[in-house]
Write a structure and sequence with these properties.
Number of domains: 4
Radius of gyration: 31 Å
CATH architecture of the largest domain: 2-Layer Sandwich
Number of strands: 17
Low-confidence stretches: 1-8, 53-65, 139-144, 324-343
Helix content: 40-55%
CATH topology of the largest domain: Alpha-Beta Plaits
Length: 551
């Protein structure tokens, strides 16, 4: 197999390893045979396969030559050996069959024969075809830009428009830049290139939003002492893939809009190639993390593929959109939902930031999105110091806030085995979505919130049992709702203050005598006595029903 510089091949065995979570396994044949093409052909029993490949290289012709992967749709165990042999003669790179059709195939195919792969019985063929094509394309595409195509485009754009050019992705990461600037550059551009990302700045973010919202190239004023910019979004259909920026020194040609628009079309095709490769690799790792976090497959195999198999113990981090507390005119506070991200790239920017931070801090860590949250799977010796981990999470939450994303984070307890990972995830979720917002804390760890987590798990377990909450507590809440009183909150605050009158009165802002009356009245309405069991159940019930104490 002849390859271009910077390219790498993928073998049949590697393809099966990459797509384990998609239900693909290697069965037999030459597992080291390279796959030349990502094209998949569905076998039709009424259409004969191409004629056998010529015996000598001199006889090879493009016409009639099979290539890629043959999908044995509808092929049973009886027909499989004949199809495998015919596909091998025709020149296909591999054959994919249902698992039930591969019984007895191994001995018939032979060790050096065409690779045979099996797919699980309930896997749909159409998505599998697209996934196989993407996997092979993602493997043979270069990781970066070794052939310099984006750099060549940046140089060409700069030459045509007379200003230094940069090409960025939607997260603001600099992918390529022109090299012959002839002085047509400034400090802002140099900082962006050296940092391989845009420097965080509100004015720059505002300009980026302008570019992404515009249907055509736009002129932008200089920021500070820097020069102006001429920029355009890079789109393919209704998808935005990136941006192109030109340093505008006031010497753009009259046809600058046409030149940049046409150039962006070429950039879009190149960015699409890189995006497909990067997206596939990222999604495959994310799928493995989801397998571990949901327990829906072979978690041990998933950890091995992630490179975390030898990095026990493990722990889960959960990032969730925050509730924000804001001041209002009368001095009170109101809790509102997390705001809509200010630009379409806010979440992708956080994920890019997260990936870069993990690469430097914990290279073995892996992350995914699931059920509206972002999870990180950590492993190894760093978990021996949860407080140090929390400091790093604090920094990530702080950086997210800098790009307009309000988050809370929770670090679950250390999992000594794979089975404990699900518990670590549940704890991380509780910390990030319930306890951290209640305590107005950006990051909480299970190690620091053991008792609070225990109570949360008890509440979650009992939530659906109607008989758990005493009728007297429900009657007290009903009285508050109907009469506008606040006895339930008084009790909740009393419990939170360890039933100390002075602390409770201070928290509620009332006199001790007033507090004594309220507690007496609450006990009368609810039937609450001095029995420790009654007090414990009343306290749990109020927490279970979401009754928060005074701050």
């Amino acid at each position: 197999m002849v390859q271009n510089a910077g390219m790498r091949e993928i073998t049949a065995r590697e393809l099966a390893q990459r797509l384990t979570t998609n239900g693909l396994t290697f069965v037999s044949g030459d597992g080291d045979r390279p796959l030349r093409s990502g094209m998949c052909t569905i076998h039709d029993p009424l259409v004969p396969l191409p004629a056998p490949m010529p015996s000598t290289p001199a006889d090879l012709t493009p016409s009639g030559r099979a290539t890629g992967i043959l999908l044995g749709v509808g092929v049973g165990a009886a027909e499989a050996p004949r199809l495998i042999a015919a596909a091998d003669r025709a020149g296909y790179d591999a054959v994919v069959l249902r698992g039930s059709a591969t019984v007895g195939v191994e001995s018939g195919a032979g060790h050096r024969g065409i690779p045979v792969l099996a797919v699980e019985g309930d896997t749909a063929w159409s998505p599998l075809e697209r996934t196989i094509s993407a996997a092979i394309a993602g493997a043979v595409l270069p990781d970066a830009d070794p052939e310099g195509r984006l750099s060549e485009l940046a140089d060409a754009i700069a030459g045509l428009l007379g200003g230094a050019a940069t090409i960025e992705d939607t997260a603001g990461r600099v992918l390529a830049y022109s090299t012959d600037d002839d002085g047509a550059s400034d400090e802002r551009r140099r900082r962006a290139i050296l940092g391989r990302a845009q420097v965080a700045d509100p004015e720059e973010d505002a300009q980026t939003r302008t570019v992404l919202a515009a249907a055509a190239p736009v002129r932008l004023p200089g920021i500070g002492e820097g020069q102006g910019r001429y920029a355009s979004a890079v789109r393919l259909g209704d998808r935005t893939l990136g941006t192109v920026w030109i340093v505008d020194a006031g010497q753009l040609p009259d046809d600058a809009e046409l030149i940049l628009t046409r150039a962006c079309e070429l950039v879009a095709m190149q960015l699409l190639r890189f995006e497909q490769a990067a997206d596939f690799e990222r999604e495959q790792r994310a799928a493995l993390v989801r397998t571990v976090l949901t327990g829906s497959g072979d978690a041990r195999a998933a950890l091995t593929r992630l490179g975390l198999g030898a990095h026990l113990p493990l722990a889960v981090v959960s990032f969730a959109a925050a509730r924000r507390t804001i001041a209002v005119d009368d001095g009170a506070a109101a809790v509102i939902g997390a705001p809509t991200p200010p630009a379409e790239r806010t979440w992708p920017r956080f994920w890019t930031m997260l990936s870069a931070y993990l690469a430097a801090w914990q290279p073995t860590a892996a992350w995914c999105t699931l059920d509206g949250r972002t999870y990180v799977l950590l492993g190894g010796a760093t978990l021996a110091d949860p407080d140090r981990v929390a400091l790093n999470l604090d920094l990530l939450v702080e950086r997210a806030a800098g790009i307009g994303l309000a988050l809370h984070a929770g670090l679950g307890s250390t999992a000594a085995s794979i089975d404990d990972v699900l518990t670590s995830r549940a704890e991380a979720d509780a910390l990030a979505t319930t306890l951290a917002p209640d305590r107005n804390a950006p990051v909480l760890t299970a190690a620091r919130c053991r008792s609070a987590l225990s109570l949360w798990f008890i509440a979650r377990t009992l939530r659906d049992h109607a008989g758990v909450v005493p009728p007297g507590i429900r009657a007290l809440l009903a009285h508050d709702e109907q009469r506008g009183t606040d006895y339930a909150r008084t009790l909740a605050t009393w419990f939170a203050c360890s039933m100390e009158l002075s602390r409770t009165a201070t928290a509620l802002g009332v006199h001790r005598n007033t507090l004594r009356y309220r507690i007496s009245r609450a006990a009368e309405l609810s039937g609450l006595g001095e029995d420790p069991d009654d007090l414990l159940v009343a306290w749990l019930s109020l927490r279970l029903l979401g009754q928060r104490p005074a701050d």
